[in-house]
Design a protein that fits this description.
The chain is mainly alpha-helical. A two-stranded antiparallel ribbon has the order 1-3.
């Protein structure tokens, strides 16, 4: 099986700024991020003797780190981001959703 290193995991959104997942690798990355957010939220406020504010800070730090990682991978595995509003005749179907 040949690997295609030029295949995008994400394409530019039709409306707004950012990317939309278009490959199974991108969808797996989204699921992993959502699991990080959900599982991390289960640990906030779980113990009766701990400080809630420190748990929230740690949780928000993990969510922020995950979001930065997700944006970084999207930038590496997708086309250059740009603001779009609707379809245009000049859209590249390999880059634009």
């Amino acid at each position: 099986m040949k690997g295609n290193n030029n295949k995008y995991w994400f394409k530019r959104r039709r409306y707004g700024f950012g990317w939309f997942p278009v490959s199974w690798e991108a969808w797996c990355l989204i699921v992993i991020y959502l699991l990080l957010v959900i599982i991390g939220s289960l640990f906030v406020g779980g113990e009766s003797g701990s400080s809630l504010s420190s748990e929230v800070v740690i949780y928000l730090g993990l969510v922020l780190a995950g979001a930065v990682g997700l944006i970084f991978v999207s930038y590496l595995k997708g086309p250059k981001p740009k603001w779009r509003w609707g379809s245009k005749p000049t859209d590249n179907p390999t880059e634009d959703f």
